[in-house]
Amino acid sequence: MVIASQAGQPTADPSPSPQPGGSFDPSSPALWWRGAAIYEIYPRSFSDADGDGTGDLAGVRQRLRYLSDLGVDAVWFTPWYPSPMADGGYDVSDYRAIDPSYGTLGQAEELIAAAAELGIRTIVDVVPNHVSDQHPWFQAALHAPAGSAERQRFWFRPGRGVDGDEPPNGWISEFGGRAWTRTRNPDGSPGEWYLHLFAPGQPDLNWGHSEVRLEHEEVLRFWFDRGVAGIRIDSAALLVKDPDLPEVGDRPEPGEHPYIDRDELQEIYRSWRVVANSYDDRALIGELWLSDPDRFIRYLRPDVLNSAFNFDFLVCPWDAGRLRAAIEETIAVHGRVGAPATWVLSNHDVTRPVTRYGRADTSFAFGDKRYGIPTDLDIGRRRARAAALLTMALPGCVYIYQGEELGLPEVEDLPPDRLQDPMHFRSSGVDPGRDGCRVPLPWSGEEPPYGFSPRASADLWLPQPKDWADLTVELQERDPSSTLSLYRSALQLRREHPSLGDGDMGWLSTAPDVLGITRGGDFACVVNFGLEPVTLPPHDQVLLASDEMLKGGRLPADTAAWIRLPAGP
Ligand code: GLC
Question: Are residues 68 and 212 in the same domain?
């Protein structure tokens, strides 16, 4: 990677080449995941064909052309399995079926095939850390006595204290509150406690149990057999627990935490790799929130997972220096194992970028989500558009969360009685939760349901704002300056330009408030984070800009441009 080169004369020094075992031929279709544009579908909120107010697979099927026109290479479905929806589907009661509100297994199979016809691969979400409390295994465990074989697949323990009315340890749920819930015995008396790192409806599995391992390998095969091209692994660093269940302690050393990033995980994912490798080109993608780069990268060695979400980039504030550092670190770290980087601006768990970038603090942290933070959506939208061009220019794979391509803001005034997210409730209402980024998409028309549902009177599972008429797909398709048009143009250029997607990058030398990255010898993306317009480096053509350029070809504040550089000497 080049850290500095003359403005207008970039020299893209190749990033470290992949390590032995990670060797690759970038033109091979088997390595599609190295540079793909992957679109995240939250099925509840994408498109509703049957008019019940909840998105469904038939709705996705009707919109496949939209996805293909957008220019994405793959879609990732957040869990579409039967679920009581204690956590938006991340509480799965059956991995081999589809939730009836979404459709049937047959429809999923047809959807996978129809998407493939359009050149779109399908990625499904597997949630190995926990199941739903309605899953047959957990129901069997609840109805079996303490110490039974059925309970061994989970973490059941007696309570502490005289009557066992204190939880077995002090672990805190990721959603706040204690990570243990007490059961009741058949006679109504208080029983054992069970562990749930998330909501009580999501009991944690015991990954020390051989049936848990075998079951998940079979689930992978089940979906690979149905043509799925990749698996997104939910909460991938949490599966293994120290069987002694010790307290977390002050600052555990990496690998010593009782339930985060335990060494045994590597072996589990190696066995998943063996399953994936028994098919032709399947990808394993980890959701790994790990701040230690040395620990993070162990998961991306050639015999473990293929790729992981880049949350360091996602949480980064709108700041040239901080983003540059995040990009440099990402590329250096991934280069050590020959894994492709990924670039993510948003997903179904985080504040929409248009809102986040319009605030004084443009970083993201789960613990900081609050109601009533002053937000300038115009500035936020400018920055989100510029960030999109930066993200799509960087080397590796890019993720787009549904609605990001429409520039949707976070919905911050959902009626309290409609909220669903356990993160909101378990914070006693202090944290607005994640519902605001999960509101059903606006497709057409002037008022809710904006074509999301075929019935004008449909009661959507989350209500849409009254002022989204300007954000519909229908309107944005007709407007060349819309965010949707920007995403379409960028994704098309990204596909066509031989140096975009997977590969190497270099840096242009720029003012401190400006980032300039180069791809190949003739492409650069320049982003102006400062308050004043800047002059672009010498170029032959502006290929695309996130907002209108100023007279004399100057790049305004909070704007990005893709330019063609003059041919080198
Ligand atoms: C992941 C999902 C999130 C879910 C959690 C528990 O972080 O992205 O939506 O709540 O896992 O499954």
Answer: yes
